[in-house]
C-alpha cells in the first residue's frame, strides 16, 4: 500500500531517503514548514512528515493545524532526551509518532501502524538511559551493529549470521540476532526444538543462550538493552526493500556472503556493484582450499577484506576452526574491550528435543 505524504524536512538527503521507501508517495515537499502547512489544504495527503529541527515554533503551529485537518503527523527529532519538552508539547497537539534523525528507517513502521496514543514510556526510557554520566554509558558506546547480506538465496546468509552471533555470544560478548529477511526461520526453530524459549511479547526466541529477534517492531527496544553486538540478517540482496537498503548502510560492519560457482560469480558481480565502497567484508562460502588463492587474487584491493568460511551445516554447532570469524571481527572485538567469558552450557542433541519431526 502506498501512503501519500507531504514533507517539510529541509534537507535533500533526508527527502531522498524517505522517497526510497516502497510505501511512500510524496505529493508535495518544501523546506519551509509554513509553506507545507498552507499546501495541506489543497492536496490529498495521508501523512505529513516534518523536521522539528527546522523550527520548534513552526512545528507546534503545524501540529495544531494538522490536528484540525485530521492529518497524521510524523515528527523528526534530533534526540528523544534532548527534545523531551518539545516532544511533550507536540504530543499535546495530537502528534503520536516521533523518529530520531538517525532512525529514519522507522518511518514506514509509523505509516503502517500509526500509534493511537503517544507512548510516554518512550521518553522515560530515554531519560533513564541518560542518567549515568549525563550521556551514554561505556557499554552503550561500545555497541556494534553488523549487517549480513547474501548475493542470492540459499548461499548461507542465515547460517553465517547465526554462527557469528553465537560465536560472539559464547565468548561473553552479549549479542542479539535480528531477523530481517522475512523467512520466519526463528519462529520455526522455536516450534521445532523444546529447548528454544519464545517470548512473544518481546518478539524473540532464546536458544542456547542466544537472543534472536523475529519481530522488526521489537528492534527499537532491543537496541536499548545491554547487548554489545547486534547481528542483522538481511537475507539475499534481491529481496532488499528500499528501507532495508538504508538500514544496511547505517550498520558499523557489513558482511556480504558469496560463493564461487559459475552462477554465484554472476550474482557476486551484481552484488559488488551495489555494495562496493561501503566498507564491506566479503565472506566466501563453500570455497575449497585450492580456490582460495585465486579468489584473493581476483579480489585485488579488497583482499584484506576477504574471508573464507568453514563448512558449517549447523549454525549452532561448536566449530573449532572459527579463525575467519576472529579475523573478521578483530577490530570490533578490540573496540568492545575485555569481557568475562560466558559459562558455556553443554549442547544437547537436538534430535531428542524435537516437538515434531520434519
Automatic annotation (TrEMBL):
Full protein name: Flp pilus assembly protein, ATPase CpaE
Amino acid at each position: 500500500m502506498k501512503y501519500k505524504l507531504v514533507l517539510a524536512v529541509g534537507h535533500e538527503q533526508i527527502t531522498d531517503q524517505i522517497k526510497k521507501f516502497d510505501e511512500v508517495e510524496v505529493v508535495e515537499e518544501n523546506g519551509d514548514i509554513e509553506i507545507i502547512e498552507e499546501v495541506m489544504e489543497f492536496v490529498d495527503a495521508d501523512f505529513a512528515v516534518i523536521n522539528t529541527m527546522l523550527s520548534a515554533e513552526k512545528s507546534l503551529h503545524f501540529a495544531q493545524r494538522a490536528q484540525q485537518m485530521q492529518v497524521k503527523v510524523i515528527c523528526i527529532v534530533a534526540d528523544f532526551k534532548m527534545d523531551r519538552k518539545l516532544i511533550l508539547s507536540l504530543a499535546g497537539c495530537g502528534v503520536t509518532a516521533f523518529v530520531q534523525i538517525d532512525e529514519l528507517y522507522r518511518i514506514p513502521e509509523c505509516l503502517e501502524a500509526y500509534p493511537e496514543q503517544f507512548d510516554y514510556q518512550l521518553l522515560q526510557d530515554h531519560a533513564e538511559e541518560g542518567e549515568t554520566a549525563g550521556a551514554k554509558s561505556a557499554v552503550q558506546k561500545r555497541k556494534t551493529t553488523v549487517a549480513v547480506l547474501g548475493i542470492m538465496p540459499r548461499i548461507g546468509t542465515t547460517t553465517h549470521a547465526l554462527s557469528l552471533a553465537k560465536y560472539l555470544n559464547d565468548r561473553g560478548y552479549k549479542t542479539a540476532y535480528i531477523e530481517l529477511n522475512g523467512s520466519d526461520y526463528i519462529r520455526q526453530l522455536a516450534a521445532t526444538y523444546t529447548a528454544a524459549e519464545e517470548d512473544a511479547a518481546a518478539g524473540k526466541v532464546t536458544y542456547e543462550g542466544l537472543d534472536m529477534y523475529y519481530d522488526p517492531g521489537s528492534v527499537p527496544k532491543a537496541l536499548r538493552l545491554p547487548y554489545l553486538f547486534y547481528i542483522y540478517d538481511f537475507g539475499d540482496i534481491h529481496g532488499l526493500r528500499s528501507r532495508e537498503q538504508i538500514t544496511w548502510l547505517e550498520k558499523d560492519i557489513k558482511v556480504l556472503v558469496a560463493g564461487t560457482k559459475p552462477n554465484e560469480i554472476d550474482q557476486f558481480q551484481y552484488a559488488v556493484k551495489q555494495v562496493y565502497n561501503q566498507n564491506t567484508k566479503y565472506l566466501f562460502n563453500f570455497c575449497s582450499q585450492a580456490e582460495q588463492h585465486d579468489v584473493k587474487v581476483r579480489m585485488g584491493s579488497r583482499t584484506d577484506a576477504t574471508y573464507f568460511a568453514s563448512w558449517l551445516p549447523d549454525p549452532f554447532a561448536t566449530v573449532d576452526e572459527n579463525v575467519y570469524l576472529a579475523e573478521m571481527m578483530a577490530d570490533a572485538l578490540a573496540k568492545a574491550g575485555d569481557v568475562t567469558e560466558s559459562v558455556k552450557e553443554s549442547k544437547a542433541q537436538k534430535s531428542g528435543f524435537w516437538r515434531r519431526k520434519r
